[in-house]
Amino acid sequence: MTTLILGATGATGRLLLAQLLERGQHVKVIVRSPDSLPAAIRRDDRLVVIQGSILELGDEAMAEHVKGCTAVASCLGHTLDLKGIYGQPRRLVTEATARLCNAIRSNAASTATKFVLMNTAGNSNRDLQEAVSFGERCVIGLLRLLLPPHADNENAADYLREHIGLHDEAIEWAVVRPDTLIDEDRVTQYEAHPSPTRSAIFNAGRTSRINVAHFMADLITDGAVWNRWKGMMPVIYNKGFS
Fold first, then answer.
1. Which in 39, 62, 170, 207 has the greatest CB count within 10 A?
2. CATH class of the 2-238 domain in this structure
3. Domain edges within the chain
4. What pLDDT, in 10s, does the model give residues 64-83?
5. What φ, ψ does residue 125 adopt, rounded to 5°?
């Protein structure tokens, strides 16, 4: 199996890349600067590094890079500084998601390609009409207006829910929603839920990036895990956090 990863030089993306290589998977990555990848990983013969920008590659090139991949994983996000939050491109995650889905469809593969999108627990799954308090709705409304990356995350997930849906022959998808990302040096126990079990605004949980990467790798490589969560937006928390 081969997985294409976007955002492989980011804090979570590089952990997902390592997880997949450790599991013996073949991986392609699209990165602006290959030197941002650890030298040991760049030397792995199961890795193909494509230098470029996902929003600048032509449609034919995109289709070629996706061809033969059984899964696509997006760990794209906005840099948390003024330029990253308010600069261009403001719809990075959404536009990348749409372009990748179009590339997958253009190849007309005989089996559906998995699409795993990293998102945020602050984004509701409107298919489930998740309970959100009035206060939380107000805060999220402000975030949507004042912080473009939040709206971008919402729109990317909505693209999969609304434009791809649950019965597309070419694409199956899952949206992973961690809460308050933290750094840890090893995989620990974590829990996945169909919907948040706590308020992402007023009672946030914690999720280590390495656990996010582990769960995404399980979705990609473990058929039972995929069948449990495909077409859903699981929320994950480090187990035992209170």
1. 207
2. alpha beta
3. 2-238
4. 999 999 999 999 986 666 66
5. -90, 100
